[in-house]
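Continuing the series of single-chain predictions for the mutant panel. This is the parent chain; the variants come on the following pages.
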Amino acid sequence: MTGDVLALFADPLWGPILILIARVIDVSFDTMRVLFMVRGRRLPAGALGFLQALIWIVAVGNAIKHLGSVGHILGYATGFALGTVVGITIEKYVAYGLSHLHIISRHGGVEIAEALRDRGYGATEFSGFGRDGAVEIVTSVVQRAHVPEVLAIVDRYDPQAFVTVEDPQVLRGGSVVSREWPIPTPSRMVQRFRRT
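Parent structure:
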């Protein structure tokens, strides 16, 4: 690093701020890396791991260099905390991957399945028997970003339906509605979180 940048890290005001920003970025990358890794996406996970490690070494190196400064230590710790929040927020917004919904309804299963199909989702329905008698069961695999829309459909036909949402480990055959991937902007993020 150049002398000017090193001088900024040593500054009692800018040093903690730069460390905080670096930690927010590296922990956000790490959160996304773990999510990609769990879903078996090696290349994005590896690329994010590389970037995360580069940023982390700069942040931790400068925090250790200035252990006598409470501001630098607080910048490091605060950056870690904020990075966790930002990483989870980004992951929620991007909603990468698929979800498997199990919908159990006493009276609205057929209507729910038809409404899902009308919106282009695949839906499998069958009958079952629960604690309180006959039920209609609907299962569907959708993009995670579409889960709120599917839940709104369920609520329209049976607000009391029992719904579970899981991450499928293996997916073969069938069809899943694709989605447009909007470029994240602050206004879209605010809009999306107001809906959830």
